[in-house]
Amino acid sequence: MDKKSVKLYRLFYLILMILILAELILFFQSGGKKSDHTDSSADPTVSSDLAAQFESALSNGRIEVWYQPIILSSNEQLAGAEALSRWKDGDSLISPGVFIPVLEESGKIPQLDRYVFQTVCRFQKERFETGKELFPISVNLSAKTCMQSSVVSEYDEIFTEYNLPDGAVSIEVTESSEMEKDRLSEVVREFQSAGFTVETDDFGSGFANYENLASIPYDVLKMDKSLIDGIGSERGNHVVHSIIAMAKELHMKTIAEGVETADQKEFLKSEGCDAVQGYFYSRPLSPEDFRTYLGSR
Fold first, then answer.
1. Residue range(s) defining the domain that contains residue 189
2. Which of 58, 160, 182, 227 could form an SS bridge with 204, CB 3.0 to 4.6 Å?
3. 136-158 pLDDT per residue, tens
């Protein structure tokens, strides 16, 4: 192993140890609860009601695809957007932290993933046919979706039907302990062979994705908001600096999620993070508001 490879692996395992330690501290501080998302399993009635209502909500247009802009750090120009699902309940919205776990537990999450992907393709087709500039939009795929044997061929067929140029839609993989590393690597490589950019989502929020970076050739690393919240402290700055440096060594682009302050934005720019996403620039936007937003750029 050459000196550069030795340096890279040392940097990787240093980051791994730091992040695992931070995760353990948060785990024990929260009394053993790893996530602050609403635990829908604590209310079986809510879970069963949402699972039963899902198909109806989908067909009646109560589940919408919203878009959160992603901004280039270098010049603050629009780099793209992430597609996010929203479930309308009258005049309010049901939190994704509530309905996403329900759909995962009921086995219906692949149906939502497919719906979001098709909706984004239609959105991009509309812009493409009217001569408007296309910005890449990323779509999240759950572990359950990625474990389906025909997932890549199915999504590539949908994309091809819309006759969109390569790069119009990218794939965000949400890793899970349910998914074997070999299968994950296979899915990532197959999507890339089909012309898709593949991103690893929420890096820093769990254990599964740390070791996978050494063997799975993602195109983009998206740092979780929990890491960005640490910017401003000495340790937090060191962790983010090291992750960006590691990503560069691995020839991966970096996107920071959950950027909410000018200080965070400036620090990420100074460290060479490629793009940022968060409330500092924009909340997730409804389709109508996103069209207006794009028209103003």
1. 3-34+64-77+109-296
2. 227
3. 999 999 989 999 999 999 999 99
